[in-house]
Design goal:
The chain has 135 residues and is an alpha+beta fold. It is 20% helix and 37% strand. It is elongated and about 55 Å long.
Length: 135
């Protein structure tokens, strides 16, 4: 089983938002201390749970996208997070070889100050879940 359809679904939806800078970018790059604000960083993990099969196989893909919406202040981070929510929440993405369910939001934290790159930014972290069955 490949994780690619899940990651591709999440990243394609985010990259389709006009003017939204999404990382990792098409070349796998991540933001630096000089990256223009605002931007989004999406980290995606996929696991396979027991699916509804007679064979008892783990065929239900469960992908989690941990999305960091980064802005110059808390308002900018929340606005960016809102654009992410509109792009993802309740969407049933097209996936090669899979039958997806609507994307759900599992968690949301308020914007927090991040100075780890030497620059003060605000980061709002939201988690989204995409589940699918073999198609």
């Amino acid at each position: 089983m490949s994780d690619d359809p899940h990651a591709t679904a999440f990243l394609s939806l985010l990259r389709a938002v006009p003017g939204l800078r999404v990382f990792p970018d098409g070349e796998g790059g991540t933001p630096t201390a000089t990256t223009a604000l605002p931007y989004v960083v999406a980290w995606i993990s996929v696991r396979y749970d027991l699916g509804p099969t007679i064979e008892g196989r783990s065929s239900r893909g469960v992908a989690t996208a941990t999305v960091h919406s980064v802005g110059a202040n808390d308002t900018a981070a929340r606005i960016t997070a809102g654009r992410v929510r509109v792009a993802l929440l309740d969407v049933v993405p097209a996936m090669t070889g899979r039958r997806p369910y609507p994307i759900r939001q599992d968690a949301s934290l308020p914007p927090d100050v991040d100075e780890s790159t030497g620059r003060r930014v605000f980061d709002q972290i939201d988690q989204y879940r995409l589940e699918s069955l073999p198609g």
